[in-house]
Amino acid sequence: MTARAYGEPVRWEPTTPRFRPWRLLVSWVTAAAALAVAAALLPGVGLERTGAALLTAAVVAILNAVVPPVVAALRLPLTLLTGFVLVLVADALLLLLAAELLPDEIRVDAFGDALLASLVMAAVSIVLQVLLGTDDDDTYTLRVTRRIARRQGGGARTDVPGIVFLEIDGLALPVLRDAMRDGSAPAMASWIAEDGFRLTEWETDLSSQTGASQAGILLGSNEDIPAFRWVEKEHGRMLVCSSPADCAEIERRHADGNGLLAAGGASRGNLLSGEADETILTVSRTEAEKGANPGYRAFLANGFNVTRALVLFFWEVALEATAALRAVRRDVRPRGHRGGAYPFMRAAMCVVIRDLVVFGVLSDMMHGRPAVYATFASYDEVAHHSGLMRADTLEALRKLDKQFARIARARRYAPRPYEIVVLSDHGQTQGATFQQRHGYGLDDLVARSVERRDVAGIEGGDEQPAMVGQAVREASGRKAPKVPKNDVSGRDVVVLGSGNLGLVYLMESPQRLTREELDERHPRLLPALRGHEHIGWVMVRCADGGAVVLGPRGERWLRDGRVDGEDPLAPFAPTAALHLRRTDGFAHCPDVLVGSFYDPALDEGCAFEELISFHGGLGGPQTRAFVLSPPSLPLPAEPIVGAAAVHDLLLGWRRMLQEPGSPQAGDDGAGAPAYVPDKPTRVTARGDRA
């Protein structure tokens, strides 16, 4: 469906996925060839005569069209685990059943042989489909998904447009532009060239990370979220944007009935739900997902999806191992930590989670849901460890772009027209970590600069482990573990890393300490921080209530903008002072807020955690997010600053499409009236610029 021009009336005629005999023939021959390869490789499987592979493949295809959809239709607790395992077992049993029905054609010695043969067949089929150009054929998937939607009471036709928001976690606008130019995002590039889509920059808040951004985008507010993790000193506890309980608390604090996905929307793969009615892999709704969840039915209804996911999972692990070895051999710098559990985390994000979210979106569209917001975190995960624009990072982006093209093609079969908006929640900035540069961390620097030495250093602030952990918990039914270190009441000092943003809490007082109190109690702390070569700025509050930003050779007073000596914020964006003033107004702003250096010439900074591409603070493309939108959705005349302003824009688009008579005002610069639900430039909490 080509995007409509602004004001063009909706004329919607949904079509049915056409049955293509030649596609069926290709699929049949591909399955037969895959079976023949499996029989040649595995001693426990054998074909008894010429042509046996074709006959057996036909029988297995017929059985596969019946059994997995029945399994997917069962209302099972822990849907992801039980459904995944049952479909995997069913794939093997179908091959055994085919051997029983065709004893003169095929031999399968045992269940284990059948299971292994299913995986080998999936691997061979993937290769053949890519070679034959049939790997993007969603005809069967969409027919099944439409049928499931109708059985669940959805799929009613309407001319009222829906809207699908596809978030690419961690992708900066400059990186996307280069990727579209160089061929790593061909689908999105074609949308701009052929369909008139427009690429618009928006500036993130401080902190530039998914927890704060999604709170603003989905709920309309991210007040008092100073970083990915922060301490509430009065309670002696730490809140983390990857904790299901803490995400639920964030949503409770900020939801006001005005969520982006309220009134029938769906949340797929997000930290927060946006007050959606339907969710899968949404961290704030962990408890609600432990029962039977029909959101996974579209994925489980095709047995090939399960074996394919397993094969591609281990292939992705192999790709990561190869890329890591190549980086070592070529002495690529900076080079991130790529061992331990990371290869499996990457495979989970780049294959399993991605495919589950895609099928969730396809199911939502066939169901006719009015709004869908889905997060794809594979680019962000790979970039953290590989770098912003390394080959394997851009390959992760290319695969996402391919999935977006798949979602766009599926719109013609949905019961309502859909507009697609692609956006990011933040970008990333690159550079060797603080630890790599010095052999010690920010917590070590603080520990030797305060009078007490019980310093707890905590880092690793990103949402991918939360998303994979959510999938595991949903699959296994395990409760989220209680993390003892979230209770920090017994610590003297807590140092947190969120990308290149550092937070220092001195627990000796339940209130935020002033600069004067810090100088009196810990006279070495501020000089050690502001004088460090790879720390760009340090923010503290003075006794008179005014915040000051300290640098190695100067100070900037945020209340009146006065600068003594060299301005420590000079290397950063002109809006840096506004963002710092806003954070200073948060109830749980740390005693000392620390930002790394940023070198505009080299476009690099350094994280206080072990990620070579990072986000969370100020400096570089980490604050340069984007919105890619069709021409039917008007753009504001003013800059978009902050996630809450993005919420206003996206919610305004949804209301314009779905609520007749929505107010219109202004001009988008192209002669079309623009819907302005609120001021597009929105900095709050003492940050001015409203």
Draw up the topology in text.
Blueprint: H1 21-41, E1 45-47, H2 52-64, H3 67-73, H4 79-101, E2 106-108, H5 111-132, H6 139-151, E3 162-168, H7 173-182, H8 186-195, E4 198-203, H9 210-219, E5 229-232, E6 237-240, H10 244-254, E7 266-268, E8 278-280, H11 297-300, H12 303-329, H13 342-367, E9 371-376, H14 378-386, H15 391-410, E10 418-423, E11 429-430, H16 434-438, H17 442-447, E12 455-458, H18 464-476, E13 493-498, E14 501-506, H19 515-521, H20 525-530, E15 535-541, E16 547-551, E17 554-557, E18 563-565, H21 576-584, E19 592-596, E20 598-599, E21 604-605, E22 613-614, E23 624-629, E24 640-641, H22 643-658
Parallel strand pairs: 3-9, 3-10, 4-24, 7-8, 7-9, 12-13
Antiparallel strand pairs: 1-2, 4-23, 5-6, 10-23, 11-22, 13-14, 14-19, 15-16, 15-19, 16-17, 17-18, 20-21
What is the compact description of this entry?
By secondary structure, the protein is an alpha/beta fold.
Task: Give the tags.
alpha/beta, eight-stranded mixed β-sheet, 24 strands
Coarse morphology: globular
Number of helices: 22
Oligomer: single chain
N-to-C CA distance: 37 Å
Mean pLDDT: 87
Helix/strand structural class: alpha/beta
Give the percentage of residues in beta strands.
Answer: 5-15%
Low-confidence stretches: 663-678
Measured on Cα atoms, how large is the radius of gyration? 27 Å
Strand order of the largest sheet: 8-7-9-3-10-23-4-24
By DSSP, the count of extended strands is 24
Main sheet attributes: strand count, strand direction, barrel closure:
8 strands, mixed
**Approximate helicity band:** 40-55%
